[in-house]
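S.,

As promised, the inosinic acid run. Input:
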Amino acid sequence: MTSDRWLHDPDLGQVVVAEDVLHKRVAELGDELTADYEDRPPLLVGVLKGAFVFMSDLARAIALPVEVDVMAVASYGSATTTSGVVRIVKDLDSDLTDRHVLVVEDIVDSGLTLSYLRRSLLARRPASLEVCALLVKEGRQRAKLDLKYVGFHIPPDFVVGYGLDVAERYRNVPDIRVYQGPVPVD
Ligand code: IMP
Ligand code: MG
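Predicted complex:
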């Protein structure tokens, strides 16, 4: 048994989604995706770095021969909010033409990152493009986003864990928690 002493951190607040609840929901999403993509195994496109934990669990919950690729985007803005100006820092290795693409995102806040990504990926002419987001913050999106698969709708607090960070920390926290520490300046 590993020690969980490091999780007794005053900057970590309330648990928003517990570990067992996360795992149960990821299994459900996996079953749903297995049924929906049965005859056309998808290419999972993980958005780094935040989606790496979710994508690793989700990929194993899909009982189909999926392929996996990753891309990294950077948004200009402060440490805890996006400006909407997004830049592709690491592009995909795969050609998306005629592929069934499933974008795997950690969290949708304003939705600006996702709407930029969707436009940019659609321009590459995939056969289909859907989004699977683990978390969606309630009441924060200005435009309507077409999110086919969502893990949880959560209150609009800043959260960490299960891939999500603040200044690159807490990605390996096994559940989702409110971050209540100082806001780092970047
Ligand atoms: P959006 O463009 O405002 O939807 O922001 C999406 C991106 O901002 C996510 O992919 C995360 O990298 C980051 N982000 C937004 N909210 C949080 C949060 O509560 N914790 C950690 N990262 C977040
Ligand atoms: Mg981030």
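The radius of gyration is 16 Å. The chain has one domain: 4-179.

- D.
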